[in-house]
Each structure stands twice: as structure tokens, then as C-alpha cells.
Amino acid sequence: MAAKSPAKSTATTAKESAPTGQDTGRRSTARRSLVTRDVLEKATLLFAEKGYETTTLQDIAAAVGVSRTALYHYVTSKEELLAMLVEQMSVALADTLAALRAREDLTPEGKLRELTDMLVRQRAESPQQFRVHDQTESALPEPMRSKHRQARRDVLSALSAVIEEGIDRGEFKPLDPNVAAFSVLGMCNWVAWWYHSGPDYDIDAVARQISQSAIDMMAADDATRAPADSAKAALATARSSLDALERLLPTDGA
Amino acid sequence: MAAKSPAKSTATTAKESAPTGQDTGRRSTARRSLVTRDVLEKATLLFAEKGYETTTLQDIAAAVGVSRTALYHYVTSKEELLAMLVEQMSVALADTLAALRAREDLTPEGKLRELTDMLVRQRAESPQQFRVHDQTESALPEPMRSKHRQARRDVLSALSAVIEEGIDRGEFKPLDPNVAAFSVLGMCNWVAWWYHSGPDYDIDAVARQISQSAIDMMAADDATRAPADSAKAALATARSSLDALERLLPTDGA
User: Fold this and answer.
1) Alpha-carbon span A220 to A222, nearest angstrom
2) Residue A198 — φ and ψ, nearest 5°?
3) Fewest Cβ atoms closer than 10 Å to its Cβ: which of A5, A186, B133, B231?
4) Which residues 231-250 on chain A approach chain B with CB closer than 8 angstroms?
5) Which residues pair with B198 in a beta bridge?
């Protein structure tokens, strides 16, 4: 039972006694990080419900079920909670995506699949965190705000780089890589707005469909898939579309 | 000059004298709606910057450049402004999409192209309105909240219905229509987060690429796919190819 819901059972322990010294060692560190996660989750829900500005540390302590004094063992300010949210939602993600981008064992398609799968699952797991994180950007104190913005740029550039790699190899259509990256991000991020775990959606199926959609919108047509130079391919596609147009339009005088 | 910037010149007139009776007739109605639009825009920016809760009618009056008494000719409460935002951002859109869905002269692909084009352009034109509208959902008083939720469901169901129609006709892949609809909505809605008018992005090219991406992620494999079915579709494909070509060719003098 305890093994099944460690976060919950640890939070209960924390209510009884907050860690006081070095006697508990490694176990205390693990417990501390679980309680901190619980605090962060409760705080995020409050920020989402009441707004960041109007939420107090007292509200957060009450939601976690500890006294305000006990809460101070874990966080000392709302700003610190925001900083943790940024760290979790963008900095850590940006690092993971950068590492994925650099992997040499994956094709651009393989990388795109992994990237989108990871994004969809993270948004589905922490929808409130993602939305609050997005809404509170303007409340972030420095240097958190710069760190957050840099992480956002890093996520975008990892995704754009994978798309550009696919275009260069003739595997992806010659799309605008930034617009394509934003489209994929939008598709994945939006999961935080609509996904609810439950019988309606199976997260594995959702992640699979969205990843496949991202690949399908990039994939070069079979005709243009050859590593032939892409300008030539684009010109050929334009010409055949114009041919189709000619056939479809009424002839002169008709 | 006045004809070039009616909203601005009318706003100036409003500062001098708010409409007082039925003497101005139709002109007054037009002016009123322009000023109201200006008020709504300014209010939205304030909601985005300061938060809905902390913005006062006095702040809004100051931003518009009128007295609070003059503002009362146009709006009587913040709730009324929120209601207008809902009307503009979701109810009107839901109606337009429902009408588009019912058009018999368009294939599912043609409908999807029109729907996404419309969504992308609206998000690009009113990014703050869309984001504030999304963030303030919980602040909406009844019956606005229900109206807003119904409109959101209507937008989703119009899009899902078009996708289902495409699947039934064998033109689209047999995807989960709701997940596919949310993916398309995410891709379009996200424009409100990243698009800035300016030299970086041409809105026509952006709308074209996103619409084409939505179609490409739905389209059944070539084996089951119908040929370009409308002049508009052929033209859109030709234009996307030309956009790609433009990006691929070295710039002048390079």
C-alpha cells in the first residue's frame, strides 16, 4: 500500500514530523523531495484556481495540511515555488530534448517521434503545472524569467533543428522549420487543455496518434522523397499543382 | 485620413462627447460599436498584464483616455467586457464553423482548409484576446460560463464532424476524430502564443502551411486518396511549393 502511493504516505509522515537534522540521511532527502513535489502540486492548483498573486503561503500550507512553520522546511516563498515550476516544466525538458536531438542512432523521424511522445506525456501528466507555468511567466522574478525564456528558446531550437535535419535529408517536406516546430509544439502543448485521464482517452494511444500526426505533416511525398535537391522537388510540385489548376478551371469563353 | 483609421478617429470623438440621444441615429451606432471595440481591446490588454481580478473600470477608462463616467456609456462592468470577449472569441467562431461544416460545395479537405485558415488568422489577429479569454474562464459569471463552454464544445464538434466525414469517405485516415480535432485546434490556437506580425512571418504563408499540415496529417495514403478536387486546393498546394522554393533559393546577392 505504501509502495503504491509513496507521495501520499510521505506527505502524511511530513504532517507528523518535518525533518529536523542529519539523523535521517538519504531517506530524509528522498522524503523531502516527495513532500516538496506534493507542495508544488498543491501550490500549482491554487495558482490555477485563485491566481498566483492572490495565493498566500498560508493557503498553500492549508492545502498541504501542514502549519505554515512546517511549510518553511520545504519552501520559503511563492517565488521559490515558481522557480521550481520553471525548472521542472521548461529547463529540465529543454535539456532532455537537446540530448535527444544529438542522438546519432535515430533518424529525424525517430527523433520527432520521441520528442512528441515525451511532450504529450508530460503535458498529460502535469496539465495544471504547464498552464500555470505559462500564465505566470510575467510574474517570474529574475533570473528565473530569463532562464525560463532561454529554456523555451532551447525547446524550440531542438525541435526546429530536428525538422531542418529531416528537410536536409529529403525525408521531410521543405516547410518553414519554425512554423512547423510551433505547429508540433501547439499540438503537444494543447494536450494540457483537453486531456483528462479516464476512460475517454488512453494516453498511449493519444501519444501514438499525435506523434504519428507530427510525422505525417512533415513527411515528404513519396515522389519528392528522393534525396534530389529540394528546390527542384518544390518546383515540380508547384508545376503539377498548376497543371491540376489548369484542368480544374473553366477554359476561356466557357 | 479619417477614413483610413476610423476606430482611432471615432475614439477621439468619443472623448469629446459620448452619444447622448437618438439624434445621431445610425452613425452613432457605428461609432458606438467602434469605441466599444477599442474599450474591449484596451481592457483585454490590461487583463493580460495585471490580471482580470486586479483590473478596475478606472484602469480601463484611463487606458481608453475617457472618464469613468464616459466609459459607462459603453460598458457598465468588467463582467460585461468578459461576456463580450466570450461572444467574440468563441460564440461567433462556433457559429461560423458550424455554417462552414454544413457547406455542400466543399469536400472534407476543403472544409478543413477553410476552418484552419480561419482559426489561424483569428488567433494571429487577436492573440491577447484569445489567451485572456482562455485564462479567465473560471472568472466568467453565469450564464456566460455555460455559453462559453457550449461554444467550445460546438467548435470541437464542428471540427470532429468534418474529420469524421473525411474518414467515412475514405479521404482521411481512420484516426480518433476527437484527438485529431484537438491536435488541429492546438496547432491553430498556439499561434496566439508565438505569432507576431512583422518581418519574421507572413500571415498568408503561415496560414497556408498550417492548413496544409492539418490536411497532411489527416490524408489517407495516396492509394486511397482522391486527386486535388478543387481549384482552391491546387492553388494552395502551388503556393506552398512556391513558399518552399523561396526559402530554398539563395537570397539575392548571396
Assistant:
1) 6
2) 150, -175
3) A5
4) 231, 234-235, 237-238, 241-242, 244-245, 248-249
5) B201
In chain A, what are the domains? 28-76 (1.10.10.60), 83-222 (1.10.357.10)
Contact B191 A189 (CB under 8 A): no
- Torsion angles phi and psi, residue B66, rounded to 5: -125, 165
* Contact between chains at A179 and B230 (C-beta distance less than 8 A): no
**ipTM of the complex as predicted:** 0.72
Burial of B70 (0-12, 13-18, 19+ CB in 10 A): middle
Among B residues 204-233, those touching chain A with beta carbons less than 8 Å apart: 205-206, 209-210, 213-214, 216-217, 219, 222, 227-228, 230-231
Distance CA B222, CA A222 (A): 9
C-alpha span between A248 and B160 (Å, rounded): 29
Q: What does the pLDDT look like over B2-45, one tens digit per residue?
A: 334 333 333 334 444 444 455 556 667 777 777 888 888 888 88
Give the C-alpha separation, B41 to B39, whole Å.
5
B158 has pLDDT over 50? yes
Q: What distance in Å separates the CA atoms of residue B109 and residue B237, rounded to the nearest whole number?
A: 12
Give strand ranges (E) for chain B. none
**CA–CA separation, B254 and B245 (whole Å):** 16
Provide the chain A residues 11-50 that lie in CB contact (below 8 A) with chain B: 49
Contact at CB, B217 and A214, closer than 8 angstroms? yes
Please indicate if any CB of chain A lies within 8 Å of the CB of B137: no
Q: What average pLDDT does this structure show over A249-254?
A: 56
From the list B54, B189, B234, the residue facing A248 with the nearest CB is B234
Show the cell assigned to A10: 510521505
Contact B209 A183 (CB under 8 A): yes
Q: How confident is the prediction for chain A on average, in pLDDT?
A: 79
Q: HSE (CB half, 13 Å, CA atoms) of A19?
A: 20
Chain A partners within 8 Å of B206 (Cβ) = 176, 179
- The C-alpha atoms of residue B123 and residue B201 are separated, in whole angstroms, by 14
Chain B contact for A183 (CB, 8 A cutoff): yes
Higher per-residue pLDDT: B147 or A62 = A62
**Distance between terminal CA atoms of chain A?**
79
How many whole angstroms separate alpha carbon B200 and alpha carbon B190?
17
